[in-house]
Amino acid sequence: MITPVTFRDRILSGETLFGSWAGLGSPLAAELVARAGFDWVLVDLEHGAATEAELLAHLHAIEGTGATALVRPQSGERLRIGRALDLGATGVVIPRLDSTAEAREAVSFLRYPPGGVRGIALLTRGARLGTVGHGEVATLNRDIVGIVQIESPGALRDAAEIAAIDGVDVLFVGPADLSHSLGVPGQFGDPTYQAALRSVVAACRANGKAAGILLYDHASFEPHLDLGFRFVGLGADASFVVSGAKAALAAARAD
């Protein structure tokens, strides 16, 4: 029997994967973005308008397009990560971690025992609604995508160690948070910030993991790809609304 290629396999094989943030709190907006052809769409519960009560509708909307549905929970707590996975997220972006120890603990929440400490509830979407028995539940662990955000000096310092953790598949730079924490807020061309990006990419390459980042400026896409980022967010539902509205109005006024 041929084992199907999973989204996690695609990440770890080095494939370049493009995605988008979904933060408007609208499953329809998330579906529209996913239908544009993105490889993944992330539902943002940390800064976005959606809540856990609305997450299932978002996951259904994204999955129906063929895109992979990811979630950034409010925090890296066990309950928050577990809820996202139980509702059916393929992977979780874990925010606000500052050390290897914190990352190792958070990643343990992604997987069922013996690979982790995720609570077992078989009648959930994440456990395939009871179709997987107790003896096979640990096999679900291999497909779960673990993404750790690098957005603080501590996480940057420990980037290589974090990338070496089994279950961390992507180190994902948060440009705004990282630049502010480094004392160069929004100065994405600053040498300190650029050195931080190179450090993250190097940590990922050394450990066979993917470097990720969220970008909004189209002119920045190619330079970051050249630098080695392979898991790239190309904006968000909100930014697409804003840019589209501005472009339409500018075109009308130009006439």
What does this structure look like?
The protein is of the alpha/beta class and 255 residues long. The protein has a single domain (7-254), classed as TIM Barrel (Alpha-Beta Barrel), CATH 3.20.20.60. 39% of the residues lie in helices and 16% in strands. Strands 1-2-3-4-5-6-7-8 form an eight-stranded parallel β-barrel, surrounded by six helices. The longest helix has 18 residues, at 237-254. It starts with 6 loop residues before the first helix and ends with a helix.
Keywords, please?
255 residues, alpha/beta, TIM Barrel, 8-stranded parallel β-barrel, 11 helices, 39% helix
How would you sum up this structure in a few lines?
The protein has 11 helices and 8 strands.
* CATH-derived architecture: Alpha-Beta Barrel
Q: Helix/strand-derived class?
A: alpha/beta
Task: Provide the β-strand percentage band.
Answer: 15-25%
CATH superfamily: Phosphoenolpyruvate-binding domains
Per DSSP, the total helix count is 11
Rg from alpha-carbon coordinates: 18 Å
Distance between the amino and carboxyl termini: 61 Å
What top-tier CATH class fits best?
Answer: Alpha Beta
Q: How many strands, which pairing sense, and closed or not: the largest β-sheet?
A: 8 strands, parallel, barrel
What is the CATH topology classification name? TIM Barrel
Q: Which stretches are low in confidence, meaning pLDDT under 50 for 5 or more residues running?
A: none
Shape: globular
Q: What is the chain-wise order of helices and strands?
A: HEHEHEHEHEHHEHHEHEH
